[in-house]
Automatic annotation (TrEMBL), chains A, B, C, D:
GO terms for molecular function: N-acetylneuraminate lyase activity. It comes from Shewanella gaetbuli. Gene3D superfamilies: Aldolase class I. One of its GO terms (cellular component) is cytosol. Pfam families: DHDPS. InterPro entries: Aldolase_TIM, DapA-like. Belongs to the DapA family. The active site is at Y135 (proton donor/acceptor), K164 (schiff-base intermediate with substrate). This is Dihydrodipicolinate synthase family protein.
Length: 295, 295, 295, 295
């Protein structure tokens, strides 16, 4: 698996009462992301409110997404479970329904030691035969995996073949690059670091931004690859205020609110997450206006 | 409800294969905590691995504990759920089986705004008629509730009547005291802050320590209440190395390992949590030795 | 030297043009602090704007203070110098003019290793024969000395016999107590931690508060020593809003503004420090009102 | 003044007893930096131990450097003073002896408000007619100036025309760029962020690295400007371990130790700064070996 470019994160749309998944809206979301040039689709990530779904819902979304994307691009299914057993079961299920890879974040109530984290990934790797993208995002998961641990798992656990780094600390990427002698592909998961991560050698950008910014993230990626730094800077600084807003206010609720502003009602994020405020809606409208025209 | 003193946190014992709850061992644990002079029992807290249990298991532990304690002291059932819906359902269940109060920590994958946190507690309060202890522990939950928010909820949400503060920052307790004009009872949830929290006016100490330290925590509480500061200091500094060890290595696994060292096998913590190392076992043995003799 | 209680920090008054020291006002300040029951006087600390004085000014204040206090209580002269050479020279001068001890904070532009910090204190100790209070306050000095280092210096450097801990982290005091087996006297330098530090065994409270709060800090100290915890709590929570204000806005400028409000004009803090705002003056007036009446 | 590229920071060499400045060695250092392609020279920065010099020494170094560089490239003199008065005096002196600009960092014992910082820069600007580079480096100065403040000073204080950002947080540069609409030139002062800062639009890189790495930093700058990202990455990752070492161990002592390894004895850093350890010398030797050959 040789992944690069824009890995897009669909939201999980709910019906108006918030109780059921709106698969029709999910299908439209997936088609839209593919039209924007996504190089891979990653359902059930942070954006997809993975952690707030029941096991049954999670499985339905995984299965539906794989079928809908239908091999047009790779599908990387997100797993964020508290217990090893649940993570292993979900990983098995993802492989069974045809996922190309899983992206695993070790959510935890209690902090985990490096040994416990290693065993967690080892147990998942033992249960499947598709690649694992180790996903580090302490701001949401409460667990911080060092570059040293990530590279160690890459060397010692067969299916751990990629990393998604979301701390926003570029020095982590530097360390991964040096420690693995450039062999461990790393992806950027911090939207406001996109330009620099790509310049530092990230293989791609994992992002929910294409939901609202259309082809703009893909264009940024392409200009960096072409060495057109001035154009890349222009594109990045155009997107930055919107990226900052999305991240600052909260990805799922902003993306859902933004899609509604764009005429596509996908329901609200699941409680305790609420809706964005009216003032934030006004700000968001102004921010995404330019991208709609250009998109 | 006029709660004070030592609120003890039982572990949730598992069978050797880790798959089932060992209710016999749970019963022994509860009896032991009552014998040590616990002023209340709080099952399904952080110590009880609440977050790692299935809904069915969680309910069985809640029901079993209430029955076993049988009104000898109040039972405060811990709730740590990602979605509002699950928290409300568990709170209703706790009340239904006879819990005296619930202790609620707003675990979350995404950060929550103050409004979202308020609504979360409001929804739970609306569903029950027993007191709620709002539990702030950002190190495990990823969410930090300010003293301002806690006091606001105390004033505006009927059943929010107590706070458990576990940040370890004594200034939070100062603020709660000043902002509520001394009316909001706060409990200390940071073991290594026990002496100072009690001296600053905490109503009690929420702790798993009695599982391993027997009556020592209760004695500390009593000496502070008696104004015997020198004796309280002596007791606190005796317990401090053990408290530091328990917190530093991780409460459920250390308490379980300690109970095994004391001759009571309660299984391991649930994966991804592992066992403590052999070196840690040696340290723990030395630490708890003195309290066993004294207990 | 067996120091305990309230160690008071005088400001360094300037003339109206800010260029010269107003020794008359300094004398009045010292007398006032002695009247409030200070157990020691510490000129040229953070409060005394030590870092903003020329070498000549610093020496004049040291000499003047020792003479004025005239052995009524111990005088502990503060030293905050960037280079070892300047610190050694000032320490020698302080001893020569009759200081009872020096309080040394290793201000530095570059971070220092533990070895460099040790050598710094060693060099000062070698140059004098009076006690050194090692002063840790990373918020102002940029250098954080661990409890381990402080206890090591206490054991290995002859004149290092006391510690002033100003991080506000009570766990530092716990560690100093345990590591030194209760033998290293530690003083609290964080005003808003006064109650708890004293309850945890601090020998005293190093504070500028008596400048504005009169005998109130001394009363708090006495009630803790008497085991009158309820009274101590009442006194502490009465003083806490004012202590929080003083620390939050900045000690020298608040103390100087407060003294002016009390009818004693001691000039402004030296630039770049400015005056407090009008709004802050109104707040400060309300805060210190109660203590003036009582004082 | 249209500054860009590599702004090199000379050390301040001392004689073997550490008491005097070795101007001969300083001259050789300056010539060497000019030979490596430096686009500007910045004496008396952090690297130059500015904070540890007497006023007399500081002035001699400023004057000597301007004369020695003799208009071959701009000279930007560093000012790091605690009081406004001393900063103003040094700025005046720098202009008088022919400096092209001053770089000002508001070192302080007490934290400063935004108003106090603004007034500090305003007072310096009022005293001179050459450009001021506002230098933000909270790790050494203890004061953190927000992008909002920096841009405000750029708009409102005539001589503040450039910023050196050394927090290592690329988001600060993003904000400066957006808030000033690209008009405020910013320079990177965090060595391990050099690649990304230049890619994000930094006008140049302020660095002591050319002292040990020769032309390598200049080459990195040139490749980024040419849009040769792959080459720039290769150059950056080659330099990164050495940059990390220099910053981690401490710039002045590592640069001085490195120069000695290269055959140029410039004395030690001034106490309390010590020498690097033998183990560090071995590491440093290995690190700089490759650049010596290439340089």
């Amino acid at each position: 698996m040789n992944l690069s470019g824009i890995i897009s994160y669909p939201i999980t749309p709910f019906t108006q009462d918030g109780k059921n998944i709106d698969f029709n809206a999910l299908g439209l979301s997936l088609e839209s992301l593919l039209e924007q040039g996504s190089d891979a689709i990653a359902p059930l990530g942070s954006t997809g409110e993975s952690a707030y779904l029941s096991t049954k819902e999670w499985r339905e979304v995984a299965e539906y997404t794989v079928k809908k994307v239908n091999k047009r691009v790779p599908v990387i299914v997100g797993i964020s479970e508290l217990t090893t057993e649940a993570a292993v079961e979900n990983a098995r299920f993802a492989q069974q329904v045809g996922a190309d890879a899983v992206m695993v974040i070790p959510v935890s109530y209690w902090k985990l030691t490096e040994l416990e984290l290693f065993d967690y990934y080892q147990a998942i790797s033992d249960a499947i035969s598709i690649p694992i993208m180790a996903y580090n995002n302490p701001a949401t998961s409460g667990i911080d995996m060092s570059p040293e641990l990530l590279v160690k798992m890459f060397h010692q656990i067969p299916n751990v073949t990629m990393v998604k780094e979301s701390t926003g600390d570029i020095q982590r990427m530097h360390k991964i690059k040096l420690l693995s002698e450039g062999k461990l592909p790393f992806f950027n998961g911090c939207n406001t670091l996109a330009l620099e991560a790509l310049c530092a050698g990230a293989s791609g950008w994992c992002t929910a931004a294409p939901n609202l910014l259309g082809v703009a993230p893909k264009h940024l990626y392409e200009q960096v690859k072409a060495g057109e730094l001035n154009k890349a800077q222009t594109l990045f600084y155009q997107q930055l205020p919107t990226l900052t807003f999305i991240v600052g206010v909260g990805i799922p609720k902003v993306v859902k609110a933004g899609l509604k502003l764009l005429g596509r009602d996908v329901g609200l994020a699941r409680k305790p997450l609420g809706d964005i405020t009216e003032q934030q809606q006004t700000q968001l409208k102004a921010l995404i206006h330019q991208f709609v025209r250009g998109g």
